[in-house]
Amino acid sequence: MRKLLLLLTITVCLAACKKEKDQTPVYDKKANVAYGSDPLQAMDLYLPADGNASSTKLMILIHGGAWADGDKADFDIYIDQLKRRLPGYAFANINYRLFTLSGQNKFPAQEQDVKAAVTFLLNKSTEYKFSKTFVLLGASAGGHLALLQGYKYAQDAAPKAIVSLFGPTDLTHLYNNPPQPTLPGLLAVIAGGTPAQNAALYEASSPISFVNSQSAHTLLLHGGKDNLVPPAQATRLIDKLKASGVYNEYVFYPDEGHSWTGPNLEDTFNKIEKFIRQHVP
Is the pTM of this model over 0.90? Predict the structure, then answer.
């Protein structure tokens, strides 16, 4: 099942990283902090020892897995890297309700959970000693959810930046132009119908629908040989961002698929670090 879904599977040997980083700052980890009543409505928090509610920034990470699989543990290696590269940031690595084969948790359950998690974190910022300045980062389905949250709910909680690794951006276009024959069926089941049957839901679940001139600066990273989320999903969003006058960067790895390892993963960490440092004052 994992091979057929939009699943994030990123592995890397830290010893292979060539770029030297400072020793990881001291963090307090709070595991499985609940933001709702469902067991999957939980997050891991990584709070810097010297954090404060006025200047400590927050990064919220959202895992992938085709909205039906995956876990916050998939991002553990990201946390380790990002703590070294963005010392002083607090990190929230969230889970959300997954769609099940029995039909539970159809769209927009995942969207609602991300919104609830963001609201929970901002309401708890004083208690957990970080500010309301935050960044969203997601991969695959998590990239889709990061973009959707950041654009759609900006009036309630505006991120300073969004990072999406190979995330879907336009679900109707993805349904109509699938890289795999199984993908339209998956989308129809999760969405409870096809775009022809429920055009409003597909539009409401697509980040591209909510871009405007005030949208957050956006970094997209994509592989040219991605057979789950085609590069057109990134370039369509880039075109919309450019037309709206929103700053954006697009990193394209022509020989990579749906996730990557090795030197290009190291380059990805470098690009994310540079982007965040430049665009989150």
Answer: yes
